[in-house]
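Researcher: Here's a chain I'd like modeled. Treat it as a single chain, no partners, no ligands.
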Amino acid sequence: MSITDKDLQFREIITKAVCGKGRKFSQVSHTVTPSHAPTSILGAWIINHQYEAAKASDGVEVIGTYDINIWYSYDRNTKTDVAKETVSYVDVIPLSYIDKKHRASTAEVAASATQEPNCVEATVSADGSSVILRVEREFQIEMVAETKVCVLVNPNGCPDFLDKSFDFDGDDLGDYEDLDADLIDEDYN
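Model: Modeled as a single isolated chain. Structure tokens:
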């Protein structure tokens, strides 16, 4: 029995789906002025990163904070101290993919840090009074909303698998027992 074009039926279904995606890599510089003029940088860490995502007119805003800790020496490398500073940021991430048919009133956004903020360079400034840090971070965002999808309806209903028998016991290995497992592993390494 064949299905002709006139027998085809379609339905529109309203469902929640990922209707937008985006990603953004950022590289920013921060200047931290410690209580003593630094001689050299012994270490720089970023900790306590917190963020949340909010829908914006031109994409998604990721609003967050993190703490910068700089271990430095001063007084001609005879003493050490740790400078601490909390930094706030707002990254606007555009949606590189968006379903134009989504219902905007149902949109929910989520962000995940694909690269947590990380200090990639810390140097003493030219005047010797502060530390300049270069920080990298990257976010991926998704927008979930209600949208319509079109499905093909089978006029004869769903196929009945109950009267079929399937054998998955593995007794019939066929030609697979002759395969060299080491050869297969080498192809994937």
